[in-house]
User: What shape does this take?
Amino acid sequence: MLWTAWGRDWRAEATPGSVVADVARGVVPGGTVLLHDSDCTSAESSWRITVAALPLLAELFADHDLEVGPLGEHGLAPTAHGASRAW
Assistant: This one.
């Protein structure tokens, strides 16, 4: 699955505000936002910035009348293992 917007939340200099600003540049209806939930290959504790950005991102999406949903709702065909496949 490719994304249309990313928060660049893995960077050591990322802040909740910078994550929102980066996502805002690529927000489109039906788009996919890439965020990270671990810091195994990111700046230490960068996931905390992502978590702090979530309420701000919710406001951004609401301002654009966008709904947040799971990746499975993108209409991709399921594979034999139940996961969705991107073409």
Q: What stands out?
A: The radius of gyration is 14 Å. The chain has a mean pLDDT of 85.
